Amino acid sequence: MFNAVRRNLLVKATPAIRAGLVRPVQRSFSAAAICRSSDHKAPIIQGPGGTPGRTPTDFEQATGDERSEHLAAMDGNAYFDMGPLYLNKKGTKAEPTVVPSGAESRIVGCCGAPGEDHELIWIMVEREHEFDRCPECGNVYKLSDKGFDAENLAPPKHEHGH
């Protein structure tokens, strides 16, 4: 279809081009994928891919964090920390609630400091801020300087034996 339209246009345009009434326009077009960085620091995490002739599974085609999550699940571990942050006291400017994170920011859901309940409020805790405060209960949050710390993630210990 396209070739038929192109031929038709060329037939109609050729006399005008020969007479010098219309100049053909030449457009240059180029496309190239150039890798400008050769010092990638992140490891490439990818699976074997699918077997020819069949659709690959999620595990076979997963890459990056998704593949790491699959591998951790196979070992019985959780790759992402989705557990709650246990609070035993309200965070203050002097002693904020430390949020473990290896990233520049983390979203925290606050439903009240201990002894104060309110509706769930999502707060973006950012490393560049000195602290971030819940607008409802006033609990103060700060990102950990050490990244993920197992001590911060453990549930509170019960001393009364159950």
Keywords for this entry:
162 residues, alpha+beta, 22% helix, elongated, disordered C terminus
Give an account of the 3D structure.
The protein starts with a helix and ends in a 9-residue tail after the last helix. It has helices at residues 2-18, 58-61, 64-74, 150-153, and strands at 97-99, 105-110, 121-126, 132-133, 140-143. It is elongated, with a radius of gyration of 30 Å. A three-stranded mixed sheet has the order 1-5-4, with no helix packed on it. The protein has a two-stranded antiparallel sheet with strand order 2-3. Mean pLDDT is 75; it is low at 152-162. The protein has 162 residues and is α+β, with helices and mostly antiparallel strands.
Give a brief rundown of this model.
This protein is of the alpha+beta class. The protein has helices at residues 2-18, 58-61, 64-74, 150-153; strands at residues 97-99, 105-110, 121-126, 132-133, 140-143.
Question: In percent, how much strand structure appears in the residues?
Answer: 5-15%
- Overall radius of gyration: 30 Å
Strand order of the largest sheet: 1-5-4
Using DSSP, what is the number of strands? Answer: 5
Mean pLDDT: 75
Biggest β-sheet, characterized? 3 strands, mixed
Along the chain, the helix and strand elements come as HHHEEEEEH
